[in-house]
Amino acid sequence: MQRRALLQLGLVAASAPTLALAAGKAILANAHGAIGDGETLNTKAIQAAIDAAAKTGATVALKPGVYRTGAIFLKSGVTLRLDKGVTLLGSRNIADYPEMPTRVAGIELTWPAALVNIYRQKNVRIVGDGTIDGDGKVFWDSYWALRREYDPKGLRWAADYDCKRPRLIQVFDSEKIELAGPRLRRAGFWTVHVCYSRDIHVADLNIRNNEGGRGPSTDGVDIDSSHDVLVERIDVACNDDALCLKAGRDADGLRVNRPTYNVTIRDCVIRDASAGVTFGSETSGGFYDIKVSGLTVHHPTPVGILFKSAHTRGGTVKDIDIADMRLHDVATVLRVNLNWNPSYSYAEIPRGMADVPPYWKVMTQHVPPEQGRCRLSDVRISDIKAIGAKTAFEVAAFPDLPLERFAFDGLDLDAQAGGRIANAKDWTFTRSRIDTLDGRPPEIAASTGVKGL
User: Any signal peptide, and if so, which residues (predicted)?
Assistant: First the structure.
């Protein structure tokens, strides 16, 4: 634990001097042919500047302008500095994002690269006050078109994988990475995806994915089978999970078996999302040693704290600390749903379909029940204040596999109803107030050892 604490302190201390160093002399992508007119495709020019910078560990910068580009790949030792007035604008052509091995929504497969990629590199930084704009509406529209085709066929579960959309920033199998400062806009798919990586600092991002529409599955920051990660001061409005922990899906996630651990998320503002902080639904590799604090969550975000999984996910989730949250008109304070979104969570190939993508077969591999159920325990939730909630608790698990050892301290909840807690074991409430319209506490069902309510 001491080493982890020192590592996190090191990440925090590194953020200020990193920005100072990056402000010095830089290689201009304009010198390699980049034109900031919003129309010219600058992929080759920007990549040439990055490749030149990689030879000496230099910084890449651009003159003020709007630079249309396809996927670019940062290299070890390089800092990409996006100054105020600089915008990287994503290509609308999926062909400008080459396909490569990665993980998407918990499944390893070949998929389009992100707009900005840190792929199997180390000591890379993206800093500055500029903007990375995915211009993602064309990809959102293609997704909804596919959903209209797939949903009647019982293929809701396949749509997110078959509709290939570029993420905004991918950090994959990399270490000692810093992403600090830029404004992130209109991601085609997830905004920041940190996968199979360690020693990561993500800070001071302003994420807006609902401009010109509501981008489907435009998660804010996803930490996926990674460790030693610090996420802080994120201001996010998106159309799915804002700050999310992931660790693989079903048989493929159980095969990979890489947990997410030693993650700190703090001092963030969630303005519009599916939840303030989310664990899952990709739980297969498990989570532990996760600390979340200092979150402010606003309406129309419907849930403050969300744990979600499915009967085929598996994984162990434990040692979670959540503290100091403020929820404003958020409908549900805490939700635990281990049978989340069945039409998406459970893959089944319709009869008569033979020529299907290989990952469909992976996604439909059988997971035995003893491996498929998520185990959730040892969660500590403290100093949560909610005003204008409809329901305090929407919690359920399995009668023979209850949610164990949740400790609540310092809850101050104003809600229309207490809601329901089912399948809980050894839950404790101290210094907590749950004020409901009918004056009744949450209903306790099929639970043992719930004390203090």
Answer: 1-22
> Structurally, how many domains does the chain consist of?
1
In a domain, 444, yes or no: yes
Q: How many CA atoms lie within 13 A of 237 on its CB side?
A: 15
Report which of 190, 185, 330, 193 is spatially closest to residue 269, judged by C-alpha positions. Answer: 330
pTM: 0.94
110 close to 97: Cβ distance less than 8 angstroms: no
**Dihedral, CA of residue 148, residue 191, residue 320 and residue 12, to nearest 10:** 180
378 lies in some domain:
yes
User: Tokens in use for 262?
Assistant: 């030693």
pLDDT at residue 24, as a whole number: 56
Direct distance between the N- and C-terminal alpha carbons of the chain, in angstroms, rounded to an integer: 33
Q: How many CB atoms lie within 10 A of CB 448?
A: 12
Asked, for residue 47, whether it belongs to a domain, the answer is: no
* Signed CA dihedral, 52, 56, 61, 62: sign only: negative
Residues 421 and 290: their CA atoms lie apart, in Å, by: 23
Rg of the chain (C-alpha set): 22
Could you give the maximum distance between any two Cα atoms of the chain, in Å?
A: 69
Question: Residues 287-328: pLDDT tens digits?
Answer: 999 999 999 999 999 999 999 999 999 999 999 999 999 999
Q: What confidence tens digit (pLDDT) does each residue in 333-368 have?
A: 999 999 999 999 999 999 989 899 999 999 999 999
Q: Would residue 115 count as lying in a domain?
A: yes
Q: CATH code at 245?
A: 2.160.20.10
Which residues touch 215 (CB under 8 Å, ≥6 apart)? 136, 137, 140, 186, 187, 188, 209, 238, 239
Q: Which domain holds residue 216?
A: 89-451
Helix segments in 31-179, DSSP class H: 43-54, 137-150, 156-162
d(CA 28, CA 229): 30
CB 367 within 8 A of CB 307: no
Instruction: Determine the length of the chain.
Output: 453
Q: What tokens does 211 get?
A: 């401009």
| 203: DSSP letter | E
- Nearest residue to 211 (alpha-carbon basis) of 186, 182, 230, 187: 186
* C-alpha 74 chain-centroid distance: 21
Residue 382 near residue 409 (C-beta atoms within 8 A): yes
